[in-house]
Structure formats: structure tokens, C-alpha cells
Specification:
CATH architecture: Clam
Number of strands: 15
Number of helices: 5
Shape: globular
CATH class: Mainly Beta
Radius of gyration: 21 Å
Largest sheet: 13 strands, antiparallel
Length: 354
Amino acid sequence: MHKILFAFTLVINAAFAAPAQQTAGPVAPVADSQTRAQEILKQARAAIWDEAKSKSLQSLSITANRRLTRRGTEIELTLEALFPDKFMQTEIINLGLGPGFDATLIQAINGARAWSDLTGPSTQAWAELKSSGRLKSGGDATMAEKKSAGGGSQSMTTVAARVAAELSAPPGDFGGINDGAAASTQPDQQLVIQAGFAPLLLVWLLTTPPLLPVEFTYAGQATAQADGRMADALDLKGPHNFAARLFIDRQTHQVLLLSYKTKMSSKNATPGASAAGQGERNLEGNRSANPPAQEEVEARWIVSDYRNVNGLSLPHHLARSTAGQITEEIEVLKVKVNPALKADKFENKQEKKK
């Protein structure tokens, strides 16, 4: 997966630099701003999939490589959607120990419900690897019994647990959904899972999960520093103090960038790895007694390399930056339009067994 240069930076008047800032000069009435935003969204959604020219988009499957840059962890990502409100993200996490030693994290949205499930190599597989001499005593063979958000106990490695914690949390308190929450407050896991889907759903499909409906308003025009490209900026606001800003190319009507404020624990911490108000968590998902101080920084999803697959136009390269550092990259490998997906695929099988 290639690295992108962080050269495509939208430079706008100070009024448009971040979601939290106010627009300069006369401000259009809210109704007019919302109407303008809906016009832009209609054009942008038609650029993704034009239902006037094609049959309705009923389902979708995207397969991609995902790389966490700090860890160098390679992940096989599959996003499946059965519209309007069913989504499943399956991530096979490479632990670097060869075939059979991957961890699998599944997160799913089924209407207003959400669940997750994490599985890893069996205890027997670890024992065989350890006895082969390829793994030193202790180390990554440490096992822990975990409960998924949807219930059920799985055995997984410490390494897989740590990587999964980064994947399953909202990306650095996405859009401020936990602002104002007390440090001792356990976040709603239904919301946490759905918020984790939101950035990719927004930049790929201009939609959000059922528990995170957003209101769009027109914020103004922006100019790209690299090539002078013009973009329309839309402000997004939703429940739980959610706020973000979306930039859409004025000519192609394609999404260019999603920007939002986030919290990171310290200058030495992994950008985006700790959500505001949550503090640091151990492998059981519990808060530490003394969470580190946090600072507010900007996070961006930068999208590029648009390709058309059977009438569906999607960016095939995505990069997330936090505080100016690239923290992950996603490279799309395969797109299937209207694959045969059944509704029961998105149900929590562990919950049904109870």
C-alpha cells in the first residue's frame, strides 16, 4: 500500500478551517443553508450512484487492505451493506505469525441495533506454535477470555485485543460524540459501534448509521492549496455533540475530505487512539483510574483515486490523519454492486442463542 503525500490540504478562509469555528461575514439563514446543502448532497449522491440512470442500489460489498501505520498492522477489510440500515464490517487482523494465526473482528449494524464479535487463534494452536520453538515463552501467547459487545466469550491474543481496541472504538472520539461525558461513564456500546462506521459510510456513500442521523448545512466555498480546486463545505451536526465538516468538489461533485475535531491523550500517544472522556482502557475494556490529559486536534479522512465499478463511483484510496500525521490507509481491492445478501447475515447469532 503506497503512502500518500499530505499535500492536498484544503485552505479556506479562517471561517472554514474547522467545524467548531464560525463563518465570517454575513451568514445565510439556516433554512437557505440547509436547502443549499441538500442541493449539493443530491448532486454528490448522483455522482456516486445515479438512480435516474440505473436501478436502485440495494446492496454492496467492498474488500480492501487496511494498514495501521504506527503498528504496521495489515488488515483485510470487508464492508457489506444491505440498504438502508444493515452494515457489517469484517476485519481479519494479521498477527504476523503465519496462516491460521489471524484474529477476526466483526462489527455489525442491524437497524438500531449493533453488535461485535472477536475471535482469535485457539489455545491449542498457540500451544503448538510455542512447542515448535517459533515463539518464546510468554510474549504474544498470553491468552485472555473476552466478551464481545453482543455477548459470548472468545479466546484471543493480547496483540489481537490491542489492535481490535483501536479498530472497534470510534476514531478518536469521532465528531465529539462523547464530549461532556464523565470519565466514569461507560459509553453506549451500540453508539460506539455505529459511530465507528460513520466516517467510511460518509466518505464512501454520504450516509450515516441509524443511531447517528445528521443535519447538513452549507458552510461556504473552499480552495485546495495544491491545485486551486474549488470545493463546497458542508457542516454536519447530530446527536451526542456530533460535529464534522465535509468538502465536496464543485465540478465533479465527489467527496474530497472529511474533517472533525478529536481528542488525543498526549503528544506521545497514538493519535486518535483514545476517545474523549473515555481515558485509557485495559484489555477488559475498563477505564484506568488516572486517564491521561487530552488535547483537541484535527482529524481528516482524505479520499482519492475515484473509480467507476458497474455504475458505482467510489474512492479507492483513503487515508486518515490525526494532528497532521497519517495514522491509517485503506486501499480498495474489489467492489461488488448489488450482491446477494440476506437480512439474517446481520443478526447477532450469539444473542439469539441466549
